[in-house]
Write a structure and sequence with these properties.
With 289 residues, the protein is mainly alpha-helical. The chain is 76% helix and 0% strand. The chain is globular, with a radius of gyration of 18 Å. It starts with a helix and ends with a helix.
């Protein structure tokens, strides 16, 4: 249960990502990601200064962490540029389902029961309703080349696989005594943040940020792109990855609900039905028998 609380705390922080993204939509995505990841890494600096060996990880582990944090956001943001945000977010939210159904391929002795498969499909259906019902984006692509939306969906699918792979690799490493200290996530975030800033310098125009932008970037960095990663790591290493994957379906629901509050939009039947499906899936999937 403690691991589930860690997961729910991370999900709660990730729920604010969309609302913060709306408030910072004028900031180029690589600059946004780079500043936020670098800020988030600060949370691990006190542990590094006290015990520098906490950042001494295997090259393969370092590559996994940096490539995940950088690659996930790179593919997701590029997908959002090429295709409708509604469909891109929907495809990206396949990662909770992938965590559940791919766990037997990564973890020895883990088997899926029928209840997990049913809960996974219910949860994905709820996630789809939450995203589609809460989005106010236009799905038309008349100004885009015909190949661009398809490429955007493929990039979103790649981002989903990247995060699912990272989560399952983290759990497998912990079970095989090849895990890494949670403080090392600060190193992953710092290096991937610097890589994002480099991409900004090369690919994006320079912009001026206001004091309010700076404050929101700090909130984004220390929250959904900072503390959430550490909480997620703790949940993965101490809990049942199948249950955690199913609880992840709360992310799009919570994110959509917060967006409705921030934007002042009325609650739709999509969101209400999504709540029933997602909460039901989470309760069903966490049953022991």
């Amino acid at each position: 249960m403690r691991a589930n609380f860690y997961a729910l705390a991370a999900i709660g922080l990730w729920a604010s990502l969309a609302a913060l993204g709306v408030a910072l939509k004028h900031v180029p995505p690589f600059l946004l990601t780079g500043i936020a990841l670098c800020c988030g890494s600060v949370l691990a600096w006190p542990y590094f200064l006290k015990k520098p060996q906490l950042w001494r990880v295997r090259p393969s582990t370092l590559a996994l962490g940096v490539c995940t944090l950088f690659g996930y956001h790179f593919f997701l943001f590029m997908g959002l540029r090429l295709a409708s945000a509604v469909e891109v977010n929907l495809v990206n939210y396949l990662w909770p389902l992938l965590i559940v159904v791919l766990s037997p391929l990564y973890l020895a002795g883990v088997k899926l029961r029928g209840v997990h498969l049913i809960a996974a499909m219910l949860g994905f259906g709820g996630a789809a309703l939450a995203i589609l019902g809460g989005s106010d984006m236009d799905t038309a692509h008349t100004a885009k080349a015909t190949w661009e939306p398809f490429a955007g969906y493929l990039l979103a699918l790649a981002s989903a696989f990247i995060w699912a792979n990272y989560s399952l690799q983290t759990k497998r490493g912990e079970l095989n005594n090849r895990g890494f200290p949670s403080a090392a996530i600060g190193l992953f975030g710092l290096l991937s943040g610097l890589a994002s800033l480099l991409c900004h310098l090369v690919l994006e125009p320079s912009v001026s940020l206001s004091p309010q932008d700076g404050l929101l970037l700090l909130v984004l960095g220390f929250g959904p792109l900072g503390a959430a990663f550490f909480l997620w790591d703790k949940a993965l290493k101490t809990g049942d990855v199948r249950q955690i994957g199913l609880l992840s379906y709360l992310t799009p629901l919570a994110s959509t609900t917060l967006l409705l509050i921030v934007t002042g939009r009325a609650l739709s039947w999509h969101t209400a039905l999504a709540a029933v499906l997602i909460i039901g899936a989470a309760l069903l999937g966490t049953r022991k028998n």
